[in-house]
Design brief:
Low-confidence stretches: 1-33
Radius of gyration: 24 Å
Bound molecules: benzoic acid
Number of helices: 12
Mean pLDDT: 93
CATH superfamily of the largest domain: Response regulator
Number of domains: 2
Structural class: alpha/beta
Largest sheet: 9 strands, mixed
Order of helices and strands: HEHEEHEHEEHEHEHEHEHEHHHEEEE
Strand content: 15-25%
Length: 397
């Protein structure tokens, strides 16, 4: 027995040594800069904004895939959470990603109210946050921080550009309509700022609760007020319903309808004839002729069998921005200051056109005037060149 067990013991010992050695090797490979990077993807995957969340996630993953699955040498692990566009659950959801799942980066979200809660959690825990849609002015205003970046827009940006456009069309009296929450209210405020500075007057500000899609009462009020034009903020499934209802109410040919471009982005197949000819302003458009945009659209269509929209672009650019930071520190996120500096200085080669970050970490970008033609938001002209959000209340510490 003794003689029998000796070789077995030697074998077991040898395996133990081997296991220790390979354990050490693995530990080396898993050193902070080489272990997978955990990205907490907090987006809406149900509800009126679900298609927007999916497009953002697709765009983000497309860029990572184009880099061979690594950013700054790190592979990416995704921790996915459906935020349901529900601000009442947002703090708890974001905290769970940070404290329970230990994500390295938070990516989210679409809804401004949810994003503001995420920004507070990111600030309190010093977690890097990249906002790939929500335009809440506060995120790059009073809530601005070195660890918070946005790759989309502020609610003020497309709205302000549209205020000037509508004034230039000779409209004097405008009625606005939006969901009653931060995004819509800030969009209307941005529109009004530019429109009234140019001599127009917003004569009524109508709202419906988010995410209601019952617009009959407001359409009746608009018909009675007979304004020169209507400006709205709606997106996703709500935008589809509103554009169809506006046309069905017989208003489309009587009172010109304008909106921030979310009204017609990613929605045109469902809106059909009701959307034809509508003018909107946004930081992306169909018909941009750059090789960068054409390459992106081709890859996106091949990968997902879908046409990209503005949300896909914003997700793609969120990955580009994160990549710029990670490359600068060779994937070592403990070098946070150097990483943030690289992200601040990055020139993002976006399908929308190149952009840089403002001091408040919001894109400084061109805003296009687009017109619906078939299933496209065709670029008409650049309504505002290199437009920077005023970042009111931002004190970067
Ligand atoms: C927002 O809540 O900020 C938002 C949602 C959808 C489209 C654009 C903005």
């Amino acid at each position: 027995m003794i003689f029998d067990s000796a070789p077995k013991f030697r074998l077991a010992f040898a395996s133990l040594v081997l296991a220790c050695v390979s354990g050490a090797a693995q530990a080396q490979a898993q050193a902070p800069s080489a272990a997978p990077l955990k990205v907490g993807v907090m987006l809406p995957f149900t509800g009126t904004y679900a298609p927007l969340g999916v497009a953002i996630e697709n765009g983000f993953k497309l860029y990572v895939q184009q880099q061979g699955g690594r950013l700054g040498g790190r592979t990416i692990d995704y921790v996915r959470l459906d935020d349901e566009s529900d601000p009442s659950k947002a703090s708890e959801n974001a905290s769970r990603l940070v404290k329970r799942d230990h994500v390295d980066v938070l990516l989210g979200t679409v809804h401004s109210g949810v994003a503001m809660a995420m920004a507070k959690v990111a600030k309190d825990t010093n977690t890097l946050l990249i906002v790939p849609n929500a335009g809440a002015d506060n995120v790059t205003g009073p809530l601005c921080a070195p660890n918070i970046f946005r790759t989309s827009f502020s609610n003020w940006q497309p709205a302000y550009a549209m205020g000037k456009v509508v004034a230039s069309k000779g409209a004097k009296r405008v009625v606005t309509l939006t969901w009653k929450y931060a995004a819509g209210e800030e969009s209307v405020r941005g529109f009004k700022e530019a429109f009234e500075a140019a001599g127009g007057k917003v004569v009524d500000e109508l709202t419906v609760p988010f995410p209601n899609v019952e617009f009959q009462a407001q359409l009746t009020q608009i018909a009675a007020a007979k304004p020169d034009a209507v400006y709205v903020f709606f997106a996703g499934a709500g935008a589809v319903k509103f554009v169809k209802d506006y046309a069905a109410a017989g208003l489309k040919d009587k009172i010109p309808l304008y909106g921030a471009g979310f009204l017609t982005d990613g929605t045109l197949e469902a809106q059909g004839d009701a959307a034809q000819g509508l003018l909107t302003t946004l930081h992306y458009a169909d018909g941009l002729t750059s090789a960068r945009d054409q390459g992106f659209r081709l890859d996106y269509a091949k990968t997902y069998k879908l046409q990209p929209d503005v949300y896909a672009v914003q997700g793609y650019d969120a990955a580009q921005l994160l990549g710029a930071g990670l490359v600068a520190v060779k994937g070592d996120m403990t070098q946070r200051d150097a990483m943030v500096r690289a992200m601040e200085q990055a020139k993002i080669d976006s399908p929308r056109g190149p952009f840089v970050m403002s001091k408040a970490h919001n894109p400084v970008q061109d805003i296009y005037l687009r017109q619906v033609n078939g299933h496209e938001n065709r670029v008409v002209l650049v309504a505002a060149k290199g437009l920077a959000d005023p970042a009111r209340g931002c004190r970067m510490n």
